[in-house]
Every structure is written in structure tokens, then in C-alpha cells.
Amino acid sequence: MKQLCTLFLLCWLGAHLAQAQDVVYLTDLTNAVGTLAEITPEKVTLRVAKGESTVRFSYGADKVIAVVNHRGRFLCMNQLLAQPASQRDQRIDQFMNGTDSPPCDIIIRAIPAEVIYGKVAYAQGDVVNYTTLDGAASSLPKSDLVGIFYQSGKHELIADATFLCDNPNLLADEPKRKKETPATPPAPAPKEDRTSEADKPVKTKTEPITPLQLTDAEYKDYRAQGLGLVQEFAVMLGVIADKTADAGQKDKAISQVIKMFRPDAVIQVSSMIRGGQPNTYKIKDYLIRLKLIPYKSVSLEWGDIQYVQELTQKDDGNYYGKIKGEQRFSGLNGKGEIQYSDITEKDVDVMLTPYKKQQEGRGERKWDVLLGNVGVVTTQ
To answer: Which domains does the chain carry?
Structure first.
């Protein structure tokens, strides 16, 4: 294949089926799975199995964001409709009747925006392990990805389907493996170029993607959201540690906290019993330990929550900051006597990362506020 028209993204459980299928992605953020019957400038038609029979469903072209076929080839509808009729018909025929598949697995990274070609070895959970075409082994957190597109035609989609329709420059020609070329005799001297300067093709430069920046009003709003998220985190910790709360409340609080954090985030925990030396846990593991902490009664509160490093945009386009808080912990026995207590100053990494929200058929740029690593500063 000479060029990928586009890749597009939405969560699709069918990516994990044994056999890939055709999928239509719609502007209302739903999708339809079946067998492509027809694509025209007016509509896209699918055949969908219903028991032993097949039903045809048609969707207006203005309601379709993109289509993926069972070979793992991708078609962005607005790009298709913008082509001249002859090119459009040729593209549809190639998409519907072609036999080619991607030459390798394709990983689309959101930040920084790039395409990685190679072979995915493991993609379960929060991490993707892969080998590049050069044979180098590497891994990435799924939170950094737009999606994974397999040579088999299956795909796992993570971000909005409009992401790559809006960034067609992200996908140029597919990689071509290097071939050994035999030695050739010296080339003859070039002929004099008599083409006038006016007739020569104009070379264009590919401009780098400019990171999206916050306006002053947005900055204040998202800065406040970062503080609010850390405050909510502190409240949920109190619920999880509370011995009077039932198991259902605790489990719900644990689920809420996990959603606040990046998948690769860790938290440091210290104790004066261990001389203040911190231990490091994954967020979920720490929360489960806190839920089961062996005291008859527990008090856990945070205060003095404020920024110690303001939100600053880095080269990857994200904004990063750091918020500190003072955690007061007390564990009591059955007589109400304090068995252990400490005051720990902790800092929490905060990250803003952009995404595109589909609303009324149009993409609206938003920012996700996520918490990162939680570190111990001092314990007393």
C-alpha cells in the first residue's frame, strides 16, 4: 500500500475477537460492526448478522467519521468526500476490494505525536511491549497512546476517532524495509536542465505540530482543577482508611482514586518505625493496604494543600506541576489509645494532557487533569 489515508480511534471490544470485522464510526460516538456492503458519497451500508439472516443498515455520509475494514485499512470520510469523483471512486474500490494488509503492527503515540512500526509482543493491562523494525525492544504506557493497529487487521482504539482525521500529516508512507542493492556502474553525466524556474515543482516544508496552549482563563480554571483533584484524593484516602465505612464504600473510593491517576503512577509511604525511610507502591496496591491497615480506628487527614511548582508546558505539549500537602495520620487501639501517629509532607505530580471531545459532530479541544507520582518530602 502506498499510503494510509488515516487512522481513527474509539474503544472497540471487537479488536480482541479472533477475526477482525468492518467497523463504521459515527459522529454520535457510537460504532457499528458488520460487513461492508457499499460506500458512496451519500451513505455507508453494512450487512449485520441477525440470527441466521442478515440485515442491511445504512448511515448518511455526514454521520460517519471514519470506516475501518477487516484488513486493517482506514478511511476518513471527510477526506474521501473532498477528493475529485474519479479519485474518490478509485479510493473506494481499493478500500472495498483490495487484498493488502499493513506490513507490520502500528502503534500511534499521542504525545509526542508519532507513529511506531514494529511487532507488538504484549498489550494487556496498562503497558505495551513491542519490538521496532530495527529489532530494538521497548515499552510504552497505554496512557500515552492513541491506538494500536495490528497486521492481522485487528485494532485497539484508545482516543477519539477524529484525532488522526484532524492530523493526516501524522501518517505518511508506510515503512519500506531496506533491500540490498547490487553495485551499479557510474551514472552518466546529467543532462543540462533546461526547465525554467517557473516550471519547476515547488518544494514544500512540513511544519511541525505546534503544541496546543492554554489561554489565561483556561490556565486559571485547570490550575484550580488540579488543586481540587488533590483535595478529592485526600478525602477519598480518609474514606478508605475509615474503619466505620463499609466495604462497598471503600471499594468505590478505591475505584475513584485509581481513575484520578496516570496508570504508571506510584506512591511513597513512610513510617517513623522504619526511621522515616519510604517504601514505594503502585497506587492500587497502596490503597488496598490502606483499606486493610491493622488498627481498631484510624484518622487520616490532609491540610495545607498548595502548588509548589506551577503548571508549565514541556516539549511534549503537556503541562506539568507539583502540589504539596501535609498528611496527619493516627492509628488507635480498642481502648482509643494512639498506637502510632505521624505528620508527613507529601508532594503530588499533576499533568494536563490535551484530548478532543466529539460534540454535535465537531471536535472540541479539552484537557485531562491527571495525578502522577506521590512522593514523601518529610516525616515526623
So the answer is: 13-170 (no CATH), 216-379 (3.10.450.50)
